[in-house]
Write a structure and sequence with these properties.
It is a single chain. With about 350 residues, the protein is α/β, with parallel strands linked by helices. It has 15 helices and 7 strands. It has a 7-stranded mixed beta sheet, sandwiched between helices. A hairpin with a 2-residue loop joins strand 6 and strand 7. Helix 8 packs antiparallel against helix 9.
Length: about 350
């Protein structure tokens, strides 16, 4: 990994995360007589204080509604620490996804750490559920599509739905969503496998069903096969694989919010900051990176109103760079010189 990028990212994280909030249904205030069922409140509070970051707590109850007051609660923070299972009833993570959806819509809240009871290097399950929830695919057609695929019989005499539901096939569908760099290869592999076990007419029927009921996306079919909760909110989700201490982890960039899932007992504040730093160094959006750095500088000089630099689209940014070429540096100077005078 580029040491220079890592150094910048570490500095950026340390200066950008100044306030955090922890939402859990089992919280206790750090210095209260309540029993800390979460098991981490006191240590978290002390560790964030040592880093010069304030940490507040919100005890979630099942009747909580993410209304304007909750949006205000989140909006004043740079980092959200969120328990993955806020509900006792299944699916236990449904309310967590609602809170996450609210957090993603808040400008300036760029970091979310989801605490789970699973090992941190097994965070793919959480990441996949988030991808499904933000797919925007909650049409009533899904159930009809499932029934129609179940009516297609393979050359082996099984239903196509049963074949696709085999564990090894479901894994391929999951990887198709979580590993974009392998998406073309996996898409081709899944399609060819299905084509090989169906008659030409049945394969044509399958493609029609996929188009009519799953927006022509094998990923959407995968969410149904894995029985994931699919939400009606469509957000841009970019899964990224990063390497930390020779282990691979999945982080998600949803709009301009970086999301990590960590085991609550394994994670320390130091590890939390380090993971975010390395995620930014290895995979984060350049315009967001740039906007956060400028906002950090302006904050330190009590300057506000810098606009929405971090909402610049990556593709648009680099498209203009390729078109303007030599004049691109002058273009950037025109944007940033007025800001530099304020810093």
């Amino acid at each position: 990994m580029n040491t220079f990028n890592n150094t910048i990212a570490t500095k950026l994280i340390n200066t950008s995360i100044r306030s955090a909030i922890f939402i859990d249904e089992k919280l206790a205030l750090p210095y209260s007589d309540e029993t800390d069922e979460s098991g981490i409140c006191r240590d978290l509070y002390a560790n964030f204080q040592e880093r010069g970051c304030s940490l507040s707590f919100h005890k979630f109850i099942s009747s909580d509604i993410i209304a304007k007051d909750k949006i205000k609660l989140l909006a004043s923070n740079d980092l959200l620490l969120l328990d993955w299972e806020l509900e006792e009833t299944e699916p236990k993570y449904s309310k967590s996804l609602e809170v996450l959806n609210t957090a993603i819509g808040i400008d300036g809240l760029h970091f979310v750490c989801i605490y789970t009871n699973s090992p941190s290097n097994q965070s793919t399950d959480v990441a996949y559920k988030i991808c499904s929830f933000f797919s925007g695919n909650t049409s009533d057609k899904i159930e009809i599509g499932i029934n129609k695929i179940s009516e297609i019989i393979t050359n082996e005499g099984d239903t196509l739905w049963d074949f696709c539901s085999l564990p090894n096939q479901k894994v391929l569908f999951k990887e198709l969503t979580l590993y974009p760099d392998k998406a073309r290869e996996l898409n081709s592999q899944i399609s060819k496998t299905i084509q090989n076990i169906l008659s030409p007419n049945d394969y044509k029927l399958f493609r029609t069903i996929l188009k009519d009921y799953f927006a022509s996306k094998l990923e959407f079919l995968g969410f149904a096969l894995n029985e994931e909760l699919q939400g009606n909110t469509l957000r841009t989700v970019k899964p990224c694989t990063i390497i930390i201490e020779e282990q691979s982890y999945i982080c998600l960039l949803v709009n301009n919010t970086l999301i990590f899932a960590l085991n609550r007992k394994e994670s320390t504040t130091e590890k939390l900051y380090d993971y975010f730093s390395q995620a930014i160094a290895q995979s984060y959006s350049f315009p967001v990176f740039m906007g956060m750095e400028i906002r950090s500088k302006l904050w330190m000089n009590n300057v506000f109103g810098i606009g929405h630099i971090d909402k610049i689209n990556d593709e648009a940014f680099f498209y203009h760079r390729s078109r303007i070429k030599e004049e691109f540096i002058d273009f950037l100077k025109d944007i940033f010189n007025p800001l530099a005078e304020l810093i």
